[in-house]
Design brief:
This protein has about 270 residues and is an all-alpha fold. It is built from 9 helices and no strands. The longest helix has about 35 residues.
């Protein structure tokens, strides 16, 4: 029995939640309802189940660019949902749910029947999980940076500050941003290190210095400079937001962009 119909259903659930928080948190200061902290849990649970049913097969793991986008969106939503109990970040529910509503449909648009090699190896699974977690944290950081930019602009308009009532102070948002980047940077470092050390075991050849590696290293350098600038030069505000966006763009090009070109345009399937 086909489960393709579940993709638009899960997308619709995300969209409805995004619409609710857009209406109540971006255009008003509605009190928090008892069910709202758990709102993401319904589509998120369905999303995770859908991923488990479509990615893990009896023959192995199918992980193309569409399923990777969907998985990163699911992990991003999961990490955000778990951390939201410690920080007042209701306004981020709307863009996060909108992102997930689109990303969950990616396997339909960019399907793959290619089985991923070496998935039986613990080293590969460890490397893959660390990489996906790093992507998810930097996705949240990029959304967070965008939110900070919007809030900063709205604070200059006295008649347009409804969203600020649903968020911590801007300095607190900035502190949260650098915590996300710091943790993501640690995981990205581990991703690069495990990729180099496990390359021989996984692919029976030394690590290649290709476009994927170049963009990943560029992203690592950008975030290293940003964290260093924060510590030694006190970087903040617009500077932090811009560097966060640039680093995230490099990270997207490193994996998502390269796999899209290889799989979708060139019909080549890397390991």
């Amino acid at each position: 029995m086909s489960i393709a119909w579940l993709y638009p259903l899960v997308s619709l659930l995300y969209a409805l939640i995004g619409w609710h928080f857009w209406r109540t948190r971006w255009h008003g200061a509605a009190p928090t309802a008892a069910w709202e902290p758990f709102a993401l849990l319904l589509p998120l649970s369905a999303h995770i189940w859908l991923l488990s049913m479509t990615i893990v097969t009896s023959e192995g793991i199918q992980l193309g660019v569409g399923s990777v986008l969907s998985m990163i969106a699911g992990l991003t939503a999961l990490i955000y949902w778990m951390s939201s109990f410690h920080s007042r970040m209701e306004a981020l529910n709307a863009p996060l749910a909108a992102l997930a509503a689109v990303a969950v449909l990616a396997p339909l648009v960019l399907p793959t029947t290619h089985l991923l090699a070496n998935t039986e190896l613990l080293a590969f699974r460890l490397h893959l999980m660390i990489a996906l977690l790093a992507y998810s944290l930097f996705t949240i950081a990029a959304l967070h940076a965008t939110l900070m930019s919007i809030v900063e602009k709205r604070l200059h308009h006295v008649s347009d500050t409804d969203i600020s009532a649903n968020l911590p102070p801007l300095l607190t948002l900035e502190s949260l941003l650098f915590r996300l980047i710091g943790l993501g940077f640690t995981l990205l470092t581990l991703t690069l290190v495990t990729g180099v050390f496990f390359s021989e075991e996984l692919f029976h050849k030394p690590a290649e210095f290709n476009h994927k590696t170049v963009f990943a290293i560029l992203s690592w350098l950008i975030y290293a400079i940003l964290l260093g600038g924060r510590r030694f030069r006190g970087w903040r505000g617009k500077v932090a937001v811009r560097w966060t966006w640039v680093g995230f763009a490099m990270l997207l090009l490193a994996y998502i962009g390269s796999r899209f070109v290889l799989e979708t345009l060139l019909h080549r399937y890397p390991g």
